[in-house]
C-alpha cells in the first residue's frame, strides 16, 4: 500500500518543470507591469494634478504626504496576509495575488487621471486626490509585495534567484525608457494659436494605455512562472505590537 501511495506523489512532483528561461522572462515581466504604472504615477501624476486639474502644488504635496502614512501599515498587513495564505496546488502562494489584484490596481491607476475632475470645485478635487491616491497605494501593495516575494518561491537555489534579480532589472528598464520618452510627447495639447498646455484628457488616454500594458505583463508573469518551493508561513501579525514598536524605534523617530 505504501508503494502505491508514493508512486503518484512522485509522478506529480516530476511534472513540475525545472527552473529556466520561462521563469526568468515571466518574472521580468512583473516589473515591466510595475514600472509602466509606477513610471507614469511617480513621474507625472503631480504634473496632472497641478497643470491638468489646476490644484495648487502645496495642497497636492500635503495631501499626498498625509496619505503616505498609511503605506507603512498597509505594506506590513499585505505582506503578512500573503505570507499566511494557503499555497494552492498548481498556483502557489503569491501568483494568485498578482492574478487577482491586477484588476483593481489597473482600474485605480486609470481613475487617478480622470479628466472630468478638472471642472470640479477645489474641495472636491482634493477629496478625489486623497481617496484615489490612498486606493492606488493599497492596491500597489497587493500586487508588488507578493511579486517581490515570488522570487523566493520560484527556486531554492541562491544563484537562480540572483538571475531573477538581473532579469527584473532589465524588465524595469524597458518601461522606464518608454514612458520617460513617450509620455512628455503626448501629454500636451496644442491650441489654435500654437500654444501647448497639459491635457487632462491626454493623460487619461495615456493611463489607459499604460494600464493595459501593465495588465498584460502581469498576465505573462502568472502564466510563465512556477512556484516550486514551499515557502514557510511567517508569524501572525500583531497590530498592537507593530504600532507601539514604531514609537520605540529611535532611528525611525529621528
Description of the structure:
By secondary structure, this protein is mainly α. Helices cover about 75% and strands about 0% of the residues. The chain has 10 helices and 2 strands. It has helices at about 1-15, 20-50, 55-70, 70-85, 95-110, 120-155, 160-185, 200-225, 240-245, 250-254, and strands spanning about 190, 195-200. A two-stranded antiparallel ribbon has the order 1-2. α2 packs parallel to α7 (about 160-185) and α2 packs antiparallel against α8. Residues about 5-10 have low confidence and may be disordered.
Given as residue ranges, the uncertain stretches (5+ residues, pLDDT < 50) are 6-12
Form type: globular
Number of discrete helical segments? 10
Approximate helicity band: over 70%
The radius of gyration over CA amounts to 22 Å
For the record, give the distance between the C-alpha atoms at the N and C termini, rounded to a whole number.
64 Å
Total number of strands: 2
Roughly what is the average pLDDT, rounded to an integer? 86
Order of helices and strands: HHHHHHHEEHHH
Strand order of the largest sheet: 1-2
Name the assembly state: single chain
Structural class assignment: mainly alpha
Largest sheet: 2 strands, antiparallel
* Content of β-strand: under 5%
Amino acid at each position: 500500500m505504501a508503494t502505491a501511495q508514493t508512486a503518484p506523489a512522485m509522478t506529480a512532483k516530476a511534472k513540475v518543470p525545472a527552473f529556466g528561461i520561462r521563469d526568468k522572462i515571466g518574472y521580468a515581466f512583473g516589473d515591466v507591469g510595475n514600472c509602466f504604472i509606477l513610471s507614469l504615477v511617480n513621474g507625472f501624476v503631480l504634473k496632472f494634478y497641478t497643470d491638468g486639474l489646476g490644484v495648487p502644488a502645496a495642497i497636492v504635496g500635503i495631501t499626498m504626504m498625509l496619505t503616505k502614512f498609511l503605506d507603512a501599515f498597509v505594506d506590513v498587513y499585505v505582506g503578512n496576509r500573503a505570507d499566511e495564505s494557503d499555497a494552492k496546488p498548481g498556483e502557489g502562494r503569491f501568483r494568485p495575488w498578482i492574478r487577482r489584484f491586477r484588476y483593481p490596481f489597473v482600474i485605480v491607476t486609470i481613475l487617478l487621471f480622470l479628466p472630468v475632475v478638472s471642472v470640479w470645485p477645489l474641495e472636491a478635487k482634493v477629496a478625489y486626490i486623497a481617496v484615489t491616491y490612498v486606493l492606488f497605494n493599497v492596491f500597489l501593495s497587493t500586487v508588488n509585495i507578493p511579486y517581490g516575494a515570488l522570487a523566493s518561491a520560484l527556486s531554492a537555489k541562491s544563484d537562480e534567484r540572483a538571475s531573477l534579480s538581473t532579469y527584473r532589472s532589465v524588465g524595469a528598464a524597458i518601461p522606464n525608457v518608454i514612458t520617460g520618452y513617450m509620455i512628455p510627447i503626448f501629454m500636451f495639447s496644442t491650441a489654435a494659436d500654437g500654444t501647448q498646455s497639459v491635457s487632462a484628457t491626454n493623460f487619461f488616454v495615456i493611463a489607459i494605455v499604460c494600464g493595459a500594458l501593465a495588465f498584460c505583463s502581469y498576465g505573462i508573469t502568472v502564466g510563465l512562472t512556477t512556484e516550486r518551493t514551499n515557502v514557510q508561513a511567517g508569524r501572525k501579525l500583531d497590530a498592537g505590537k507593530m504600532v507601539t514598536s514604531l514609537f520605540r524605534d529611535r532611528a525611525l523617530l529621528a
